[in-house]
Amino acid sequence: MKKITLATLFLIVLFSPVILAQDGEESAPPPFEQPLLITSAGQNAEILMASVLAKRAGLDSKLSKIASPKDLENMKTVVLVLGASSKGLGAAGLDLAKEKERVNLLVEEAQKKNIPLLCLHLGGEARRGPLSDELISAFLPFAKMAIVVKSGNKDGFISGICEKYNIAIVEIEKTADVLTPLKEAFK
Fold this sequence. Notes:
alpha/beta, 43% helix, disordered N terminus, single chain, globular
């Protein structure tokens, strides 16, 4: 009888995060390590806010608007800020195809080096649209976690991808609220 009890206890402890997540309660965010590389998928302005918030959180981070695989040297996490800006793409001399190719090479190399991906969508509803949705669809599936401004997920598009690929998601009311979940992700 004692063996069954210990085995049962072991299974409860082992599977309790899964059970809690299915019941709609938040499960613990995956642990990410520092230093982190912050870059954009879509050359959006929110990348600068992400960098400022990472500094406020006391995180060891490097900002690179057009990061490439060589920027992964000594990095332990990639923070990808999702959201396309036509103006930002133009200023960087990129079109959507070149931006997708750049980010794809970065994500592939990060996967080879077992560097986890944390995605942020901080622009809310204003940063959604066909260009952003294409980038979100392409790169969010590779993330371990997503932090999203709630208004950017009104239609459930982002949470649907997270559910499909078993990605932890934290929704926040406004961009400044990313500070707390960002800190907690790096404990």
